[in-house]
Design a protein that fits this description.
This protein is α+β, with helices and mostly antiparallel strands and 228 residues long. It has 2 domains: 38 residues, no CATH class; 163 residues, Chorismate lyase, CATH 3.40.1410. Helix content is 25%, strand content 34%. Helix 1 crosses helix 2. The protein is globular.
Length: 228
């Protein structure tokens, strides 16, 4: 569901099918489906069975979005879309300069966006890049969406691909402008803040991002146990 392989309304495998396809016990299959129901990711539909649903209060983490882009070519899950508010070269503030490894006040590419679903704003985010990437990827300076996301566009143009990602999570109160972007009418309003870096194999940061979502939203992270 996160990767987009199952869209809203698609039929989810039954307990019997899960047992057969994944060689698990019936009890485990029941537990899996119960957990998905608890997370409001699936729901029963009369005459059809269990179907995937869209969780309106869920914010997908940067790491999940980037993995989804690698798998499906889409950085946003079904039912979500982004509007680019601004894109251009601006002086890098201290925290951005530190993340990108450039001098404070040096020019850097800044892209600001808000992500929506049918209920309204889901998150607001700002992505930062070293200024020289704008020469190789002019789309970074355009206020238009980049299909497949910025990491894919940078890889296609320069051959640099992200190898490691780090997400730092925190919480703070929203500034007035941030609350307005997210459609938060009650003040003060708490925010979940994620600081994300994508680095290449040499450890050089390709992209630094800051993501804001309402404090009452859940953020989903997925991971897999390493396999031999």
């Amino acid at each position: 569901m996160l990767s987009g392989e199952l869209a809203e309304g698609d039929v989810v495998p039954s307990e019997r099918q899960l047992v057969t396809d994944w060689s698990i016990s019936r009890a485990t299959a029941t537990k899996v489906l119960n957990e998905l129901r608890h997370e409001h990711l699936v729901a029963p539909r009369q005459g059809v069975g269990t179907v995937a649903t869209a969780r309106r209060t869920q914010h997908h983490s940067p790491s999940d979005r980037f993995r989804s882009a690698d798998v499906t070519g889409r950085i946003y899950p079904p039912g979500q879309y982004a509007k680019i508010l601004s894109a251009g070269l601006v002086p890098a503030p201290e925290r951005v300069a530190l993340a990108l490894g450039i001098e404070e006040g040096a020019q850097a590419v800044c892209r600001r966006r808000v992500t929506y679903n049918e209920s309204g704003p889901v998150s607001a985010s700002t992505s930062w890049f070293a200024a020289e990437l704008a020469d190789a990827v002019p789309a970074l300076l355009a206020t238009e969406r980049i299909p497949g996301g910025t990491p894919g566009a940078i890889e296609a143009a320069t051959g640099r691909l992200w190898n490691d990602g780090v997400d730092l999570l925190g919480a703070r109160m929203a500034a007035d402008e941030e609350a307005e972007l997210l459609g938060l009418t009650e003040r003060p309003a708490a925010l979940l803040v994620v600081y994300n870096t994508l680095s290449d194999a040499e450890g050089n940061v390709i992209e630094y991002g800051e993501y804001l979502s309402s404090g009452d939203r859940l953020t989903r992270y997925t991971y897999q146990r390493p396999r031999d």
